């Protein structure tokens, strides 16, 4: 019984600390869709949802041979671990201010957190920068 109470209390605290205001809802959905649906692997998606600055960062961090002309370091959206046996999904998203958001996530069972900058241009939201906060095996 005590274990159930602890689990429920932990879930409530997690949901409370990760709540999103109505004004941040569209950004929350953008980040959630990008990660939960693995859209960061789709170059057409990246070109449609990243600023030129972000695309350049993704290209500059790509350190393998690139045959197609446009190659992006899509792993910046994930942890650096290649294999795992768990799920990949967003745990929570928190606004940090100045257009920055923190998203905590599972990456095939590994935990990670990134800061991502989301800006508005002409009524549309774009990813503008990304910084790894932590990753844990």
Low-pLDDT windows of residues: 2-17
Order of helices and strands: HHHHEEEE
- Characterize the overall form: globular
Q: Within the largest sheet, what's the order of strands?
A: 1-2-3-4
What's the rounded overall pLDDT mean? Answer: 86
Main sheet record: 4 strands, antiparallel
Structural class category? alpha+beta
Tell me the helix content.
Answer: 25-40%
Summarize the structure in words.
The structure is a single chain. The chain is an alpha+beta fold and about 140 residues long. About 30% of the residues lie in helices and about 30% in strands. It contains four helices and four strands; from the N terminus they run H-H-H-H-E-E-E-E. A four-stranded antiparallel sheet has the order 1-2-3-4, sandwiched between helices. Strand 1 (about 90-95) and strand 2 (about 100-105) form a beta hairpin. The protein starts with a helix and ends with a strand.
Outline:
By secondary structure, the protein is α+β, with helices and mostly antiparallel strands.
Task: Give keywords.
32% helix, four-stranded antiparallel beta sheet, 137 residues
Break the fold down into its secondary structure elements and pairings:
Elements (H helix, E strand, L loop, with lengths): L1 H16 L7 H12 L6 H7 L2 H9 L28 E9 L2 E8 L2 E12 L2 E13 L1
Antiparallel strand pairs: 1-2, 2-3, 3-4
